[in-house]
Design brief:
single chain, 148 residues, mainly alpha, Globin-like
Length: 148
């Protein structure tokens, strides 16, 4: 076990792995999700740098508003730009799939901290999925039917 306070330890782990996680997330999203393939990889990387940074801030501060504020804006922009809800939800899954193994591995020596951190990460991703789904619903409900 580390002598650092848990929040400091999590922050340090995420700081050390941040660039690699962002690179993996952006590359996977760009390669695996057709809606994101129309944007250059550099733009996808920029967008998900903001998401990962917000996720890290929320995890280390125990405050979901860092992530929710970024997602409200980014999610609405992507939906308006024509990205499908499934693309956004799949991107959220890729973020979780990338961050979970890092935290699992790096916190293996402290099972309680590991479990609570993974539980918070999972909750944040569920919240992200909810926010994105709500934004999508708002846009769908607001659509005016086209006259035939």
């Amino acid at each position: 076990m580390s002598g650092q306070p848990p929040a400091d330890r999590i922050a340090e782990i995420l700081r050390v792995h941040r660039a690699t996680m962002i690179e993996i997330i952006a590359r996977r999203i760009h390669q695996e999700i057709p809606d994101y393939q129309t944007a250059p990889l550099s733009i996808v990387t920029e967008r998900f740098t903001a998401i990962v940074d917000a996720m890290i801030a929320s995890l280390t501060a125990h405050d979901p508003t860092h992530l929710t504020q970024v997602l409200e804006q980014a999610g609405r922009q992507r939906i308006v730009q024509g990205y499908g809800i499934q693309a956004l939800l799949t991107a959220a899954d890729i973020v979780e799939q990338t961050m979970t193994p890092v935290l699992t591995r790096e916190l293996a020596d402290d099972p309680d901290l590991q479990a609570s951190t993974i539980r918070r990460l999972t909750s944040l991703v569920r919240t992200a999925r909810h926010i994105l789904s709500r934004i999508n619903l708002d846009e769908v409900v607001k659509q005016v039917p086209k006259k035939g």
